[in-house]
Amino acid sequence: MTLTAPPPIPRAAGSLPFLGHALHLVRDNLGFIASLRRAYGPLVEITLQPGTRTVVVQDPALIRTMLVDLGPSLDKGRFFEKMGQLLGDSVVTAAGQTHVRKRRQLQPAFTHDKIARYVDVMREEAAAAVAGWRPGRRLDVREAMVGLSLSMLARTVFSGSLDDTAFRRLRRDLSVVMNGVGARVMLPDWAERLPLPVNRRFDRARDAVRATVDRAVTELKASGHDTGDMLSMLLRAEDEETGRPLTGHQICSEILTLAVAGTETTASVLSWVLYELARDPGIEARVLAELEEVLGDRPVAFADLERLSYLNRVVTETFRLHHTGWLVTRRTATETRLGRWTLPAGTELAYCQHALHRDPELFPDPLTFDPDRWRDGPPPPGFLPFGAGRHKCIGDRFAVTELLTALATILREVRLVLDPGQTVRPVARATVRPRTLLMTVRRRTG
Ligand code: HEM
């Protein structure tokens, strides 16, 4: 039997010397990546860093192979390398056995019991946020959701040991850094070494973020207080290799990783849910009817969450249509076989959840927001809201719990109304989020 050689991997048109595809990406990164899906087959090569191949994997089965079967042998690649400039070494940047060890240290913070305990804190934070929105006020919803996500996370991670000023500073600096990470993925490496204000701003914000988290870690450590939160858990953890407690630096990296991985993502999904509900009064009415039926006047509790089946479908449909991931990367450490192709060591791999979840072959009528598409049957193989394999999101249940708790709390108190004629566009930085989303607050009556 003779095996036919696979077709060569096509190169996407439009690469320029020194810049690769940076211009296309800077102009419209989501549009560019989506256009690759339409124009090329299962694999296509783009240039992010001149001299390095980045193969975008477009076929759902090959994406799964990359994440699950090849997961243990691949490095994390460009996106996570840029994240590492902020985070240092942490669970999200590590690969191989180091990753396994780091993940084991964090896992106890995400058990079913722990998450059930976090719900009260999440609800309190959501209620406090809503209480601060005056009726008639025009709310920058994305900003408000970043604030809310960060406070939900900060209270579960640090038990609120950040004071108000530190908290506000962290929020501002994190957003500078997250935008910077997004830009650095797209631009060739030489661009970040230029003495530009934008690079200086990134460096300053990165140092400030680390300093804020460092201080919180040092204070809690000095107090010797076990607050039962994630930070206390990490303070008790041991490095499996050395048998010693984790250093302040290691703990800071892990905490920062949770803040980065768990803030913009949750905030974007919350924003998009509020946007979609405001656009479709029929869907919003069904959500409210379900909340009334399941909760009556009671505040939401952990046991209620799985009974909110329609709201769960709304959230799932938001993960589909408005996924926050636009370029998740890996890198081959040795020559690697992916489907019929053999890739040399050092090949960058990437996939785009946002584009995958809008593929008409996987999701009929993909641009329509339709929670009922999740009523029957298992999700199609290309639906990967939290990734797959050994790097699958550690915070998946935490995130869904936050989303449902926050929505069940917000939606019964206020109605958020879209400005007429407002076009809300997605923009991809470190994550995909609404560029701006302004909505007016109205109290729910009766
Ligand atoms: C809507 C919310 C969220 C979405 C859509 C999301 C999505 C993802 C995805 C797709 C990955 C896999 C990346 C890869 O393949 O390399 C991931 C990893 C990760 N996520 Fe999330 N995430 C969310 C919320 C959270 C939250 C709330 C936390 C923490 C509190 C968190 C912590 C992490 C961590 C630590 C990893 C790295 C896991 C590893 O490499 O072992 N995420 N997330």
What report would you give on this structure?
This protein is α+β, with helices and mostly antiparallel strands. The protein is 50% helix and 9% strand. The chain is built from 14 helices and 11 strands. It has a 4-stranded mixed β-sheet. β9 and β10 form a beta hairpin. The longest helix has 32 residues. The radius of gyration is 22 Å and the shape is globular. 43% of the residues are buried. The model has no long low-confidence stretch (mean pLDDT 89). Bound molecules: protoporphyrin IX containing FE. The site of protoporphyrin IX containing FE has 23 residues, from α10 and α14.
Structure summary:
This protein is of the alpha+beta class. Helix content is 50%, strand content 9%.
SSE blueprint:
Elements: H1 22-39, E1 43-46, E2 54-57, H2 60-69, H3 78-87, H4 96-106, H5 112-131, E3 138-140, H6 141-157, H7 164-186, H8 197-223, H9 230-236, H10 248-279, H11 281-295, H12 309-321, E4 328-331, E5 336-338, E6 341-343, E7 348-351, H13 353-356, H14 396-413, E8 414-418, E9 426-428, E10 432-434, E11 438-443
Parallel strand pairs: 2-7
Antiparallel strand pairs: 1-2, 3-11, 4-7, 5-6, 8-11, 9-10
The protein binds protoporphyrin IX containing FE.
Protoporphyrin IX containing FE (HEM) binds at residues 91-92, 103, 153, 257-258, 261-262, 265-266, 269, 324-325, 328, 385-387, 391, 393-395, 398-399.
- State Rg: 22 Å
What would the CATH topology be? Answer: Cytochrome p450
CATH-defined architecture: Orthogonal Bundle
Low-pLDDT parts are: none
Average pLDDT taken over every residue: 89
Q: Helicity level, as a percent range?
A: 40-55%
Oligomer: single chain
| Separate helix tally | 14
| CATH class value | Mainly Alpha
What proportion strand? 5-15%
Distance N to C terminus: 74 Å
How many domains would you count in the coordinates? 1
Secondary structure class reads: alpha+beta
Bound ligands, each once: protoporphyrin IX containing FE
Number of strands: 11
Largest sheet: 4 strands, mixed
Shape: globular
